[in-house]
Amino acid sequence: xxxxxxxxxxxxxxxxxxxxxxxxxxxxxxxxxxxxxxxxxxxxxxxxxxxxxxxxxxxxxxxxxxxxxxxxxxxxxxxxxxxxxxxxxxxxxxxxxxxxxxxxxxxxxxxxxxxxxxxxxxxxxxxxxxxxxxxxxxxxxxxxxxxxxxxxxxxxxxxxxxxxxxxxxxxxxxxxxxxxxxxxxxxxxxxxxxxxxxxxxxxxxxxxxxxxxxxxxxxxxxxxxxxxxxxxxxxxxxxxxxxxxxxxxxxxxxxxxxxxxxxxxxxxxxxxxxxxxxxxxxxxxxxxxxxxxxxxxxxxxxxxxxxxxxxxxxxxxxxxxxxxxxxxxxxxxxxxxxxxxxxxxxxxxxxxxxxxxxxxxxxxxxxxxxxxxxxxxxxxxxxxxxxxxxxxxxxxxxxxxxxxxxxxx
Length: 409
Ligand code: 5CA
Ligand code: ZN
Known about the structure:
Elements: E1 20-23, E2 28-31, E3 37-42, H1 53-71, E4 75-82, H2 87-95, H3 100-117, E5 125-128, H4 129-145, E6 149-152, E7 155-158, H5 174-183, E8 200-204, E9 220-222, H6 224-236, E10 240-246, H7 250-265, E11 271-277, E12 280-282, E13 285-286, H8 297-302, H9 307-315, E14 323-324, H10 327-344, H11 353-364, H12 369-385, H13 393-405
Parallel strand pairs: 3-4, 3-10, 4-5, 10-11, 12-14
Antiparallel strand pairs: 1-2, 6-7, 7-8, 8-9, 12-13
Bound molecules: 5'-O-(N-(L-cysteinyl)-sulfamoyl)adenosine and zinc ion.
Zinc ion binds next to loops.
């Protein structure tokens, strides 16, 4: 699949420092020191509805990761998937009496437009589950042949007990895992499974549903977790720097994915850090396609909201916080954007070299975007209130805000 166009990232004077980031697996902050090419996998959308503010907030967090790494003069190898075949997508297509491939293509196209408008840097590899199937089948066969997977009425399940490190991503107890598995696509109550938590690797063809040639597995379609693992291992290899997504993916998705990869390769861990963004809510409940309490990025854009203001609204919350989208959040972002634009539109102003370092430091410290915004606010306030004569300052601030925060002033 093709991704979307990249906005240019201005180079700043000097160099940022290594990213410190909260790791879900070790439940603490770690400093990542990637090689010359930093490697990140971020779970992509299931394209059955448009991009909402919750998605945008999660992708914003990982866009900041890229920007911090680019500022350390590293290259970034970024991979993202599209879950373009899965139960919720097929159910929505059936409900609305439309072709599931058309639904997926339309919503993926809209996602690309939204990401472009928000200046999110694109992945180098943007891969759909369907196009990954030829790579998924041999992995499932290998797991089965190694005794880490078993068949149940034609479906193939992964045995969580085959991974000695199972549980080390989410650190949850068995009961919590069982509840979340039932809530998030698992089938802990299915009779005949070795362990209720075992996730499906390959689902045998069901009448009326799409299916693909699975070699010795028979016709069917892939399970959710193996999809991301196949794509990540193919394009990044093992022990990449960050596995990212929203906190609703910690269990089962990222736990199971790590186990699949660890059993397949015999290496541990799959990722050096498991990074999770908080959930955005609307009217007191997590924004979700299944509940329908959504604010779409595309609807805001159609209503004339500047994408830079949407981006500032996302940045005004720490990525790990759960927060609520309100009109006031957007109004505050619109006002901030106006203030910042007024401040940089002057021909000269207050020196900004210290501000560059403050923004860098804030982001390197577990992506503290609110602290970065506060630093720019302070500069903008001084700039408007006083009469500086540094001619390079407005341009330097524009480039800093663009390069590190993805906001075009
Ligand atoms: N296709 C799978 C991942 S492989 C999936 O979870 N798709 S999704 O469309 O449901 O979500 C896409 C990304 O947005 C995921 O990282 C998810 O954790 C995140 N996300 C979903 N809802 C919210 C929300 N309300 N707030 C913040 N992030 C969210
Ligand atoms: Zn995923």
